[in-house]
From TrEMBL, chains A, B:
UniProt protein name: cAMP-binding domain of CRP or a regulatory subunit of cAMP-dependent protein kinases
Record Pfam families: cNMP_binding, HTH_Crp_2
InterPro entries (UniProt xref): cNMP-bd_dom (IPR000595), cNMP-bd_dom_sf (IPR018490), Env_Response_Regulators (IPR050397), HTH_CRP (IPR012318), RmlC-like_jellyroll (IPR014710), WH-like_DNA-bd_sf (IPR036388), WH_DNA-bd_sf (IPR036390)
Record-annotated HTH crp-type domain positions: 145-218
Tagged with keyword Plastid: no
Keywords assigned by UniProt, alphabetized: DNA-binding, Kinase, Transcription, Transcription regulation, Transferase
Length: 228, 228
DNA sequence: CGTATTCTTGACTTATATCAATGTCGGTGG
DNA sequence: CCACCGACATTGATATAAGTCAAGAATACG
């Protein structure tokens, strides 16, 4: 891991070479195979992470065994910096959706980094703030929208954050199941399956096993916005 | 406004007298009458605030006019520091549920405060982090729990954060309508009314116009946890 | 007092979950 | 290489939680 890797990430863009070198010195990189987890819900938070390459799903299981997807981690995102938020353990499990590469630092390093670099602090605040915004958006959608619109919003977001051009349109660039989408929108895989089938008939998307291609994003947006 | 007021708030506890004085010098206090708003959704974020006394509800309205309650602001909470999160406008409206007193600072002051006081930055990160946690909890509840349990959780939270001992039990210490609870839990006032009526029959709560007293918190907790 | 909120309650409707069965894909091992 | 197994997906039938519609009662307020 060298400083140019970090430099390319907005969170670290404003840091000096010396500061970046100090960070890279304390951190280390690690490869996570598809299906493996970086940490598990309830584990003591010994480190915080940055996704360098790949894609992760952060999930939570409720006491009665139901699972939800809290968020998808994209390259360049910080994750698992739970301790900085005042929690001693990880609130969820981070699983690699594809082979991934993560950088990690011991939690103890956090305070030092922040103290020596107010820019980093402000960036971090903005980052968490965005996440809070996203969470509120999700709450608003779950409170006021029906399932179909929620799914439409979720799919559009996936395309924005992880869309890849293919012949038929834009494809979600990591394996994503109907169940995953259900766990992101607070519904069941059955309902998601029905919705996607209907969309496929209308030519809006193309489905498949762990696969999703959006063919007509504009129509999907309309659907997401105007209740109809 | 003097420094002892701020000193009593965890967020500022670690600051030096000099720093606190600098903050109080740049800020000002303002009284908000019940029903008035501190700022409205979409207003440019010219200031950030701290609730000194009273109680606020932060609401959002969707394009089609549906309203949700994003959160309740309690004394000692920072709110409206949207700009620090990288947004130019307020994402919601903050309305006084009772006569309230707020301190405010121009948004431009934020960066200076943070740069000169890493402690404040770390406190702020923790604060937003907690809020993110709360948001995720709400998402999890809305995804996996039925309405009655969600309402139970919401009511218990209100009691924790704004409970006041009265003869019959613990009362929510500000006017709160059935509609408010509905907007906090993603349901309708009708359903909330039915649920509270049922609870009242079982002796768990005592209702009333804009009033809510929890008589048997233990039973309510049980209800909130074990699906039954 | 009358008018406006807030709340309650009943009857009905509907979106979505649940239950159940079947199909399809893709990798593993015989 | 083919057969089989497990994970994922589809689709129909049915059940039900909670929303909608509607009417009225209670409480606060000017």
């Amino acid at each position: 891991m060298d400083r140019s890797v970090l430099r390319s990430i907005p969170l670290f863009a404003a840091m000096s070479d010396a500061q970046l070198d100090r960070m890279t010195a304390q951190g280390s990189a690690r490869r996570i195979a598809q299906g493996e987890s970086v940490f598990e819900q309830g584990d003591p938070a010994k480190a915080f992470y940055l996704l360098l390459h790949g894609r992760l799903k952060v999930t939570q299981v409720t006491r009665d065994g139901q699972q939800i997807i809290v968020r998808v981690v994209h390259p360049g995102d910080l994750f698992g910096f739970t301790r900085a938020l005042g929690r001693p353990d990880y609130p969820g499990t981070a699983t690699a959706a594809v082979d991934s590469l993560v950088a990690s630092w011991p939690t103890e390093s956090w305070d030092g980094f922040v103290e020596n670099n107010p820019q980093l602090a402000m960036s971090a605040i903005r980052t968490i703030g965005q996440r809070l915004d996203e969470a509120h958006t999700r709450i608003r959608e779950m409170s006021t929208e029906e399932v179909e619109r929620r799914v439409a919003h979720a799919v559009l977001r996936l395309i924005e954050q992880a869309g890849k051009r293919v012949e038929a349109g834009m494809r979600v660039d990591f394996p994503i199941s109907r169940r995953d989408i259900a766990e992101m929108t607070g519904t069941t895989l059955h309902t998601v399956s029905r919705i996607l089938s209907a969309w496929e008939t209308r030519g809006l998307v193309e489905g498949g096993r762990q696969k999703l291609v959006v063919c007509d994003a504009a129509a999907l947006s309309r659907l997401a916005e105007n209740a109809g």
